[in-house]
Amino acid sequence: MSRLAGSRAWASFAWIAPLNGRILFGGGLVLLIVFIAAAAPLLATHDPLRVQMSMRLMPPSADNWLGTDNNGRDIYSRIVHGARVSVVVGMAVVILTTVIGTFIGLVSGYFRRLDGPLMRFMDALMSFPSILLAIAIVAALGASIQNVVIALTVSFIPHTARVVRGKVLSVREETFVESARAIGLGDWLIIKRYILPNVMAPLMVQATFILALAIIAEAGLSYIGAGTPPPQPSWGNILSDGRAYLHNAWWMTTFPGLFIMISVLGLNIMGDGLRDKLDPRMEAGR
Amino acid sequence: MAEPQELVRVTGLKKHFPLTSGVFRRTVGAVRAVEDVTLSIRKGETLALVGESGCGKSTTGRLLLRLIEASAGELMFDGQDIRTLDRRALRTLRRDMQIIFQDPFSSLNPRMRVCELIAEPLKFHQLARGRAEVEAEVDHLMNIVGLAPSHRDKFPHQFSGGQRQRIGIARALAVRPRFIVCDEPISALDVSIQAQVINLLAQLQQDFGLTYLFISHDLSVVRYVSDRVAVMYLGRIVELADTAALFEEPRHPYTAALLSSIPVPDPSLERKDRVILTGDVPSPSNPPSGCPFHPRCVHAQAICRQEVPALRTVARGSGRPGQVACHLAEDLDLQGIPTTEASA
Amino acid sequence: MTAFILRRLLGTLPIVLIVGIITFFLVQLSPGDPAMFYVSADAPPQEIERVRTQLGLDQPVIQRFGFWLGEVLQGNLGISFHQNRPVLTGFLDALPVTLWLAFFSLVIALVVGIPVGLLSALRPNGLVDKFSTVFALIGMSMPNFWLGMLLVLLFAITLGVMPAQGYDPTSFWTGFRSLLLPAITLGYSQAALVARMTRSSMLEVMRQDYVQTARAKGLRTPVVLGKHAFGNALNPIVTVIGLAIGSLAAGSAVVEVVFNLPGIGRLVVDSVMRRDYPMIQGILLLTAGMIIVINLLTDLLYAIIDPRIRYD
Amino acid sequence: MTDSSQQKQDQTRRTVLAVDNLQTRFMSRGPALKAVDGVSFSIGEGETVALVGESGCGKSVTAQSLLRLISPPGQIVGGHIYLEGDDLMTRSQSEIEDIRGNRAAMIFQEPLTALNPIMTVEKQLAEVLHRHHPQRRKEARAQVLDMLQKVGIPDPEGRLRAYPHQLSGGMRQRVMIAMALLSNPRLLIADEPTTALDVTIQAQILELMRNLCSQMGTALLLITHDLGVVAEMADRVIVMYAGRVVEEAPVRTLFAQPAHPYTRGLIQSTPNLATHQGQLVAIPGLVPTLADLGDVQGCKFAPRCSMATDKCRSEDPPLQTLGPDRAARCWYADEVMQTVSAQA
Amino acid sequence: ATCEGVYGGELSIAGPLSLVTLDHMAITSEPTAPRNAVYEQLVALDANLVPQPALATSWETSDDGLTWTFELREGVRFHNGQELVAEDVVASWERYSEVGARRFELEDIDRVEAIDDRTVAIHLSNPYGALLESISAMSGAWAIMPANIARELGTTRADRAEQVVGTGPYKVHTIVPEGRTTLRRFDDYTMHEGEASYNAGARCAYFDQVTYTHISDPSTRVAALLAGEIDLAIQVPGDEADRLINANHTQVVPTSPGARVYFKFNVAEGPFADYPLLRDAVRAGLDTEELMAGFGPSDYWRANNTPRFQEPQWPWIDQSHHFPQDMDLAQQLVDESGYQNEPIRFLVVPGGATGWEKAPAMDQYLRDLGLNVRMESLDGATFGSVRQNLSSWEIKGAGGGSLVGLRYLDASGVDRNGNPWPNLPDGWHDVLERALNTEGQEARAAAAEEFYELHAEFNNELWTGDVFFIVGANSNLRNIATDDSTASFWNIWREE
Ligand SMILES: Nc1ncnc2c1ncn2[C@@H]1O[C@H](COP(=O)(O)OP(=O)(O)OP(=O)(O)O)[C@@H](O)[C@H]1O
Ligand SMILES: Nc1ncnc2c1ncn2[C@@H]1O[C@H](COP(=O)(O)OP(=O)(O)OP(=O)(O)O)[C@@H](O)[C@H]1O
Ligand SMILES: [Mg+2]
Ligand SMILES: [Mg+2]
């Protein structure tokens, strides 16, 4: 009895065993960044907004681990707090994109009548280079974290919708869907129990890559001034501040860039691993 | 002996899938997957539907279950016209008729455990209430199809083809149907496993009084399982007869050719006068005029090119009944497969 | 084939219309007042009003949309607020820089990406593959504007061998020189993508039966890989290249800002900052149009590569 | 292969292929999978040898190993392959490439995927000639046309510019055969050439192969899991189970008097058109996967064998010579033969 | 004046603003130096902001102050070879009265009349004491262009090279909007008398060709200068100056006056209107010295450690209301003001002198005072419209050029819809009127002083200092004007 219970308990962790090294390594990096974002107030050594003109452009030191910026603010603390923006924006974009994109993809893949109009609309959105579209949306709505999320969500939705729709189109042709129909299940039940679970794999991979893209895009938008508005630190606007001090304060550009790269690298590695694990045939979702 | 009752009767069943093409995706034609099929299935019997790939067997099976809508024709199940049923009635009908699929690899939702797969129809149709009752019923069904109870919590990919097919059968049986369409249930399996599944199906038929429409492209399998056989060619039934009659005395040149093409696992058997058909099966989107088989038929006459032969009752030497759709049925001397005593 | 092309062309019409609607209303949503850019910081209200009338901003939005659509259909994208000349002219002035940049980065992406992808597909998990995996992962993970800054720091500021910014159109060579760093910046991540896609597509194809057939025919390995495998692996590679061209042709906004290149991306960013509505609308519409055309060409290319698509 | 049978063959006809203790493994995380585990056999000129067995038993891997087409993680780890006396295992990669498609050719199961979808029929055929017999384009084309005619393709001129997807399944397989026979190979390896085809088409293709091979004196290694095909085509049969040869016999002997319980089970579970209908006798249990077999002690078939004794479960039987041309890997081969005779 | 430098060569200038047009009348937002090199006006300001003769050699005012008569310089030719006559001045005015960006400053001009070829009369409807200052504005200015071109253009903008015809030392060669604009020396240029001083005096066009390119990013401009891609970089940030000084082929030239750095309180609504003492609290709470440190080493800025509302650049400007930093006082003022922790929205626009550079520091001071402040960064266009809504902000960054016409002061008493600001002191308009219309500098100064007394009470500005514009240049360039923040280039030459 106890042996049985034990094996049951282990069974629920069985998914860990086949996780490959890449998922663990990439996931570890991502978790690290998420941890930094969550524990930012604890990890930060300074108030990220604290201006101290006398301390401007100080190189890395024991007090300011990663140096200070042109307003004498502590780069390390700003980066640590900036992680929050990246994580929050990234997560929000991923969740919204996935929820909305999945809904659109499911509906248009499953109910063929809606397919035409919905996909034309997605095609139209996809015809804009996503960064330009995001810039235009942020410009239209004003630069704020919330609007960055909206802009990126709008520009990424079609990608998720397409992936989901493609998968739905193939899943709905599988005989197990027909077997569900033979039992008498209705469309929404079939979508819920048959289509959705089978779309999850590519969706998770896609979500990982979207998260990576969203982090880069947020930084890019902030970099050109169409993203997170100051004084709120974000990796992009720290980099943007640093642009003017490229030659005399390398630490202003190097460190935030490194953080972006590490988190995106983590996501990409994890996404690659997930893709190989879940859906070896899927193409890069970009 | 009383005339066996009909469970299913279809008349003039048609299914055309539209073909689109061109700039505006206009409908330019149709795949005539099923073209004027009339047949009936008696309670408790196994009717086999054979034919080469693409001839419309699966489509017919699906039409019978109303998994797809027919383009034309009448569909009676147990005396009830099921083409007019609304959603709710159709749902109840699903309890009476089920289907087993060919591909045991794609016919089970890979994200569901065996117990969920089997319990789903039970719960959906409220055939078992409460957790305990459902579990008991699932165990019972697994037992019936010969799956060990220890497999309850496994996923389909952890099973071999034959075991998966058993899961599919259990799922179909769960609603306690009267009629099951078996759509090539064994053709994806290894020989040694095929026999297991065939025997299981036969056992179940006996135990539960099931009626089967057994779809297959393999006439040698059909000989073991069916009471009557319908041979399809390009969406039409070309011959329908009792199994033994059909094998021994084919009346349609296509049936004869089919029989003659099948390799027999017996090297001692000398087969003379093998009919090897020339050419391929024509496309159902562009069927030939007249008798669909005439381009490949060595006996074809002028009339065959012009008129579609009707399925009609034709007498056989042995007096056994059967229907054939061939203009020349009476005039042809076709070779069947005489039943030899088994050497093994 | 003609029907195929025609069908694809017609299929894009609704997309183009939706693109137009999105474009116009997106831009008109902007809360800012473009008139503010054409008066001095403390100009009085009459002045602002005059500019608003002059820019046609006093009309209701729907009316402006109808008017704009009519004009666009006649090929007239309007007059840029800021440049005071046809949007198309401004766009075309900025286009060459962006196209050259796209071209050079694409060359880098292909010249680096395809061989690297092929080599790593040849020996999966071999040394080359491991190296190129790291190369590609880093390429896909580096924000390209950061890479651009690092390149400027290294080659322009520290070593002083390359121009830090700007586009010098004096001759092909000066142009090439000014686009080299930006092209590397953009090309690297694209090369990484192309390499990954080439690799996975080749691995996929090399599992196929016809590659086995080709080997069973006794064909030499280079022929098997080059003719049988690569030909079939091309479709997904073409997809990535199509996407790359699309994103290069207009999506290089940030890199153009980093390197101060007077291209389309820069023009968009600047126009957005100035609320130059006609210009933003025009660029969004034209770039979307370009991408639609690129997609069309990609589809045609698929059809050329793969007869199964051609004969539908 | 036993000494005596080898001798006998040398007397009757020249040996084209001799395989000696071939071992092919797939390297995996765990222990290496022994996909082909010490297989030996030979084929003479003009002879057709059938290799039968259920899925996963190593038929295809054997075939690929013969032309050294195994790629990582697979690896041939031992044995010799003699093609007309040359040991292919000692040849360089480039020499092997000269032999492939030239002295030994191969055709595959699924003709749609085995033909390159983006090259015309002509290119794919001409390629073989260019590779092995460089010559002028015109001559090559004439030769290609001639071959297409031989394999019975109507309107060969017209088909030259066709792409594989524009041909029917039967046509594709004919093209595959044409491609394989173009340079007049001494050995043709056909890996389930008709499994994907309809019976009527299968009959055409088998007939074609039989005719061409006998015309050209080509040795044919026919891989199949269909005992019917075996009975119709083969001179001798090799039965494989779990990567090993379990029985080898001339075709008639094999069917009349199988010496291995597995062979017997296969025959009994195969539906036979010509014999009395009745219950098929299934082999119990599952078709094993290689990974499962790692820990099976003794005879690999023992878990499914009704005659298995403790000896079977602990000691692995060798391939015993039972007579001229006959061998079986069973401790109780004699008894098996006797029970079958008794039944008959 | 004599031109003693070396002639020849090409000068490549990069500035932060893009250049799409050289229409001197219509535009205020683009680089001014190229336009001032092409066009000239009747009078020009010198470094002391005193109008000096330019195209007009002399002028006189009628006794009623309603007619001003200008003598035109002789022999002046336009770039197209036509000779300057009075009719050109009239036609230019007519166009300017239609499209002139600052024509509201000249609303009092009734008409402009050509008395004869050499004489022009300006007829005013009201006396306007600051007429000369207003007609010598350096941007959005009444530029003199050939009559036929002025009429032909009408209200359309002069964007194409052939439409841009002036009398200045350089003429337009090509205009590539947002790209590269090229000027060439005008050989028939007629020199003005006097030492070169700001926009006035002699102009010697030494270079054969001058190109202007737009590099918005300051550090990129510096990099380009260091790399030798350009000769002259306008507006180098103070932090970058050292690099140019340390490099052996570049130099820096700090020019003053530069930009004023100031903030504006919303005195119509919200806490700063309700609690006037709060404004003083902010003034006292600022360490301008530290605030200005954001502009780099102190060589390049001048802090006003006693923030006031105006700089005494004009003789009549007030010197009072000083607040040296005193945190205790500031805190005390906050407490006394009655401030109840109402939210204070601090609008910032990037790029401006008080933009992202200094805004964080200002934000910090306000927080240090315990104000419930929220900084909002907006882009230019949004900023432009948001600031009009007086209930959408409490304090905003401002800043800009140092020259403030009196008309602006007038305008600063009304909101964007032309309504007078609430709480405007009584008599505001009367005094302003007098300050504008009084003859003679002395008298005007007196009236202005009275006006600024009132203004101080209403005071919505918070000036913290000046930033010098630093010009970065190749070290072989000579004669770069130190009194000109716009980096005029007409007297610069290159030493071999
Ligand atoms: N959904 C569909 N849309 C269009 N054509 C279809 C569809 N389903 C089936 N067909 C066509 O209808 C014809 C009959 O198909 P069906 O699946 O019934 O054949 P089958 O006899 O079951 O063949 P197989 O032995 O290969 O299973 C085929 O030509 C097929 O291509
Ligand atoms: N590339 C591979 N990697 C790992 N294992 C392989 C590979 N190819 C084949 N195998 C294993 O080798 C064994 C023999 O495979 P093979 O393809 O020869 O079987 P087969 O007898 O041809 O079966 P079928 O009738 O299904 O074609 C199988 O168990 C399979 O799992
Ligand atoms: Mg079927
Ligand atoms: Mg095989």
From TrEMBL, chain A:
It is found in: Cell membrane. Keywords: Cell membrane, Membrane, Transmembrane, Transmembrane helix, Transport. It is a multi-pass membrane protein. Its main location: membrane. GO terms for cellular component: plasma membrane. The chain crosses the membrane at residues 23-44, 87-111, 131-157, 203-226, 249-271. It holds the Pfam family BPD_transp_1. InterPro entries: BP-dependent_transpt_permease, MetI-like, MetI-like_sf. Residues 83-271 form the ABC transmembrane type-1 domain. CDD domains: TM_PBP2. It comes from the Bacteria. GO terms for biological process: transmembrane transport. Belongs to the binding-protein-dependent transport system permease family. This is ABC transporter permease. The lineage of its organism: Bacteria, Pseudomonadati, Pseudomonadota, Gammaproteobacteria, Oceanospirillales.
TrEMBL record, chain B:
Signal peptide: none annotated. Gene3D superfamilies: P-loop containing nucleotide triphosphate hydrolases. GO terms for biological process: peptide transport; transmembrane transport. InterPro entries: AAA+_ATPase, ABC_transp_ATP-bind, ABC_transporter-like_ATP-bd, ABC_transporter-like_CS, Oligopep_ABC_C, P-loop_NTPase. The keyword ATP-binding applies. SMART domains: AAA (SM00382). Belongs to the ABC transporter superfamily. It comes from Natronospirillum operosum. Keywords: ATP-binding, Nucleotide-binding, Transport. One of its GO terms (molecular function) is ATP binding. Residues 8-259 form the ABC transporter domain. This is ABC transporter ATP-binding protein.
From TrEMBL, chain C:
GO terms for cellular component: plasma membrane. It comes from the Bacteria. Keywords: Cell membrane, Membrane, Transmembrane, Transmembrane helix, Transport. The keyword Transmembrane helix applies. Gene3D superfamilies: MetI-like. It is found in: Cell membrane. One of its GO terms (biological process) is transmembrane transport. It is a multi-pass membrane protein. InterPro entries: BPD_transp_1_N, MetI-like, MetI-like_sf. Residues 95-302 form the ABC transmembrane type-1 domain. Its main location: membrane. The chain crosses the membrane at residues 9-29, 99-122, 134-159, 179-198, 237-259, 279-305. Pfam families: BPD_transp_1, BPD_transp_1_N. Belongs to the binding-protein-dependent transport system permease family. OppBC subfamily. This is ABC transporter permease.
TrEMBL record, chain D:
Its main location: membrane. It holds the Pfam family ABC_tran. Gene3D superfamilies: P-loop containing nucleotide triphosphate hydrolases. Its EC number is 7.4.2.9. Keywords: ATP-binding, Cell membrane, Membrane, Nucleotide-binding, Transport. SMART domains: AAA. It comes from the Bacteria. Residues 17-267 form the ABC transporter domain. The keyword Flavoprotein does not apply. It is a peripheral membrane protein. It is an enzyme of class 7 (translocase). The keyword Membrane applies. GO terms for molecular function: ATP binding; ATP hydrolysis activity. It is found in: Cell inner membrane. One of its GO terms (cellular component) is plasma membrane. It catalyses: a dipeptide(out) + ATP + H2O = a dipeptide(in) + ADP + phosphate + H(+). One of its GO terms (biological process) is transmembrane transport. InterPro entries: AAA+_ATPase (IPR003593), ABC_Ni/Peptide_Import (IPR050388), ABC_transporter-like_ATP-bd (IPR003439), ABC_transporter-like_CS (IPR017871), Oligopep_ABC_C (IPR013563), P-loop_NTPase (IPR027417). NCBIfam families: oligo_HPY (TIGR01727). Belongs to the ABC transporter superfamily. This is ABC-type dipeptide transporter.
